[in-house]
Write a structure and sequence with these properties.
By secondary structure, the protein is of the alpha/beta class. The chain has two domains: 234 residues, Rossmann fold; 76 residues, no CATH class. 28% of the residues lie in helices and 17% in strands. The structure holds S-adenosylmethionine. S-adenosylmethionine binds next to strand 11.
């Protein structure tokens, strides 16, 4: 693969999908990883099968003995580590049970940054156990610090009905960054992929919001993103639509080919995601507050984005500006 004059994959394989930004190979992850140029990748992300005995259309065995599963994961993780540039980021999505062991392995090769808990309920409560409610997203970098790190900032959490802040910032409102609140290592705003419009055929698809956040944090436009377990292609879509280059493998590529057949829905979705981050209040919150006649405190500094008004302001609201200019 020739990208910006850097060969990142030997030309012995033909991609099943090629876009101006990326290449998908219908092959085993080990084959792809063995061909990727060492130290060529800025962000390597993996969302492997979780060894839960699920049926995959690729026909893989998802019911290995625990030690076999861990050994298999270690082998492709070695390939991902090799592919990373110095300062590159590796992110691993899995159940806490597996990431506990895989994190220890990675910690001997890379620098640990965070265990990000992504609050998504994924099974029914289990008798005698705590209700499993988070996935683990392990964040490592090659070398002492990341070459690229620009985490999104998030809007202040507000009531979906009245738009009121769920937390009172008291006398600190004027100190709040107009671009939003610092993101923590607990993510509570990632939806499961349920909406018919965004639900891809593969039952294991991750949310585009999650992948956009990861891609935005650890890569720049033009960076190279690698994902050896393509699934329905969420990583590739996030990369493609934000100007990154990408490379990946998948054993059963139909869902990805289908998805890339028309990216209109994903494009619209990603615009919506972008409009609702790096801002202290979303346009929807501002509109809700305007509608309910409770404008935001003038002490907040708000970036230049104009609220998208959903209603005709009444005369009282017209006298009360939504926010003071910064
Ligand atoms: C959990 S899914 C990934 C979902 C993806 N992150 C998304 O958002 O759509 C894991 C995928 O890995 C694929 N897979 C499993 N073993 C593989 C292997 N050895 N090489 C390449 N792909 C593999 C499966 O077919 C499955 O689609």
């Amino acid at each position: 693969m020739q990208l910006d004059g850097v060969t990142v994959i030997m030309m012995t394989m033909i991609p099943i999908l090629k876009t101006p930004a990326g290449e998908l190979y219908q092959t085993d992850c080990f084959e792809l990883l063995s061909l990727v140029e060492p130290e060529s990748v800025d962000l390597a992300f993996a969302d492997p099968p979780f060894n839960l005995g699920k049926k995959y259309r690729s026909g893989i065995d998802d019911d290995l003995a625990a030690h076999e599963y861990i050994d298999w994961c270690k082998e492709w993780l070695d390939g991902m580590v090799r592919a990373l540039k110095p300062g590159g980021t590796l992110m691993l999505w899995n159940l806490p049970k597996w990431n506990l062991q895989l994190g220890g392995y990675l910690g001997e090769r890379l620098t640990f940054r965070n265990w990000i808990a992504v609050d998504i309920k994924y099974s029914l409560p289990i008798q005698g156990r705590l209700y499993p409610s988070h996935y683990s997203l392990l964040y490592f970098v090659k070398g002492p610090k990341p070459a690229i790190f620009h985490p999104d900032r998030l809007p202040i959490p507000c009531c979906r009905h009245c738009g009121g802040e769920l937390k009172d910032y008291g006398g600190y409102k004027d100190k709040m960054n107009p671009l939003g609140v610092n993101i923590s290592d607990v993510w509570t705003d990632i939806p499961p992929v349920r909406h018919a419009k965004y639900k891809k055929r593969d039952a294991n698809a991750l949310s585009l919001k999650l992948m956009d956040r990861i891609v935005s944090m650890a890569s720049d436009p033009g960076s190279l993103v690698l994902d050896p377990f393509g699934g329905s292609g969420t990583t590739f879509v996030a990369a493609e639509l934000t100007g990154r280059r990408w490379i990946g493998s998948e054993l059963h590529c139909d869902d990805i080919l289908d998805r890339f057949g028309s990216l209109d829905g994903d494009r619209e979705h990603i615009q919506q995601i972008k409009a609702n981050k790096n801002t202290l209040f979303t346009a929807a919150t501002i509109a809700r507050r305007a509608k309910s006649g409770t404008p935001l405190s003038k002490n907040y500094r708000i970036n230049g984005r104009e609220p998208e008004c959903v209603c005709e302001p009444d005369s009282e609201q017209q006298q009360q500006p939504l926010f003071s200019p910064s």
